[in-house]
Amino acid sequence: MNANEVTLLWADEYSRLAEPYDRVVTPRFEPIARFVADAASPRPGEQFLDLGTGTGLLARILAPRVLPQTVVAIDLADNSISVGSYRAGDSALRNIRFEMMDARNIVYRGRLFDGVVSNFGIPSFGADRTFSESFRVLRPEGRFVFSEWDAEPAQGSGLLLRLTAKYGTDRPSKELTLAREAHRLAASSEEVEAMGRPPAVRDALESAGFERVEVLTKAFPARFATVADFLAFEACWGHTERELAEMPADSRAALEEELGRSLMGPDGIDELWQIHVYVARSE
């Protein structure tokens, strides 16, 4: 498996889980998306491009702010695009155009957009090409604003990753075998790891042509009432969902017991998400 095959596999997994992702994850990510939108400072009449839009959360936040102009929202996961289109229509937002497109190869002419944004949508493999493409399609004084996780995972997420490796099935399906291979490739990739470190991201943005780069780091709290709520959230990503779905019942019970013992406080599980938001200007 190579990096491009991993990207396509992940797109399929996001597509498969688009509906639970939109239902469970999107509300929790809304404060982060609003922080990104505020950092991008959209104005009426400006045209924005949302990379890796998923089910369109950031695009929906931006759309009312740029009227009468349009937000173009792209993603490789076709069902995510479908869910996003439905959500936008249900919200009576008519100025979002959803398109299935690779952020590493943006098929628009240069200097078209006032802003390019993304909320956790920069490809793990090929970020450098995404940065170069974003620079190309931005107008002079355009801004590129996106969020990224810190390299160090939150306590609960890191623990769950270790526990799925400990308790996971030794008879994985073909689909889980591929998911594990993709995860191993990403976990061993210097390119992927670098996206969690602001100095490395800043260097990559400057190499793509951006002259002014600001890093806004903010911790976002997240509370889960129960272990089941926490697992429902984490299972909105393909690798974790497949690990949990194929885990033997006794192993799953042991995993949940360890999670509860390690993470549960008097009010539930409290996670702290360390997020870096980058604001880069084209000239």
Concise account of the structure shown:
This protein is of the alpha/beta class. It is built from twelve helices and seven strands. It has a domain at 3-153 and 190-223 and 270-281: 3-Layer(aba) Sandwich (Rossmann fold).
Describe this structure in words.
This protein has a seven-stranded mixed beta sheet with strand order 3-2-1-4-5-7-6. The model has no long low-confidence stretch (mean pLDDT about 95). About 50% of the residues lie in helices and about 20% in strands. It has a domain at about 5-155 and about 190-225 and about 270-280: 3-Layer(aba) Sandwich (Rossmann fold). Helix 7 (about 175-185) crosses helix 11. It is of the alpha/beta class and about 280 residues long. It is built from twelve helices and seven strands.
